[in-house]
Design a protein that fits this description.
This protein is mostly beta strands and 256 residues long. It is built from three helices and 17 strands. The chain has a five-stranded antiparallel sheet with strand order 1-13-10-15-16, with no helix packed on it. The two termini are 34 Å apart. The relative contact order is 0.25.
């Protein structure tokens, strides 16, 4: 394909849960254990800060959505779309928006990882990336930060991060449930009258801390709407710094 494959060249204390309540229905049963494994080489986490009320965002969302067909997906690249709420006042309330996602973007600025807060805004492995606007390739990263493994079974997550060189500090584990395949009809604001594909949108995000690189927690998984798919994205970062050290993820296998 052209599009994303021609653009990407790769050499992949419990805090409050942020969720989209209307989508979080009763948990479902999983077929056996779903395992997500980063390997030791750096997996690229792409964070897109976006909004249904921003007229400049649909092209960026479409670009991210092309990853659905990419062989790089979940192997060397993990895409997540955080919908911010600071454009809701323009006349359309983004159903995926959460003030905590806006706060995440603002915190990246406070930490010095981005120069300003705007949409569409890309953060790649914790650093602001403006290359999308100039149709440049994603930055390559050949680091080997360590291995992150996630096991998901019956709405229970167990995770382990084995950093290269050993663990010398406390870490945070981020877990995000993503929804893909939704077509949102926009009834107001700058995108009034448009139907926007929404892929890799975060509908639930939680952060847990650990001093030994292991975690265990419950994870309520929503029922996927007809024609949509759910995925899990996970990444670790140092306590006090949002920049990801390693990431993994994949589709959630769910049986009704």
């Amino acid at each position: 394909m052209t599009g994303i494959l021609s653009t990407i060249r790769f050499t992949a204390r419990i805090l409050p849960v942020c969720s989209l309540g209307i989508l979080l229905t009763a948990g479902l049963a999983f077929a056996d254990v779903a395992r997500y494994d980063s390997g030791e080489r750096q997996v690229t986490l792409i964070e897109l800060f976006t909004s249904q009320g921003c007229s400049s965002c649909p092209p960026a969302e479409a670009w991210l959505g092309e990853l659905k067909q990419s062989p790089l997906l979940w192997k060397t690249v993990i895409p997540v779309a955080f919908h911010v709420d600071y454009w809701d006042y323009l006349g359309w309330k983004d159903r995926f928006a959460n003030p905590a996602y806006s706060a995440r973007q603002a915190r990246y600025r406070r930490e010095g990882h981005v120069a300003s807060v705007y949409t569409p805004g890309f953060v790649v492995n914790g650093k602001e990336w403006r290359g999308w606007f100039r149709k440049k390739s994603l930055p390559q990263d050949s680091d080997t930060p360590g291995r992150l493994t996630i096991d998901l079974r019956n709405n229970q997550v167990t995770a382990k991060f084995q950093p290269t060189g050993g663990l010398r500090e406390s870490l945070n584990l981020n877990l995000a449930i993503l929804t893909t395949g939704i077509n949102a009809k926009i009834g107001g604001g700058e995108n009034h009258g448009r139907t926007l594909p929404q892929d890799f949108s975060v509908i639930n995000h939680q952060t847990l801390s650990s001093g030994n690189g292991t975690w265990s927690t419950g994870l309520q998984v929503p029922e996927a709407a007809p024609g949509t798919r759910l995925a899990l994205a996970a990444w670790v970062s140092r306590t006090g710094d949002q920049k990801p050290l390693q990431a993994t993820g994949g589709w959630i296998p769910v049986i009704k």
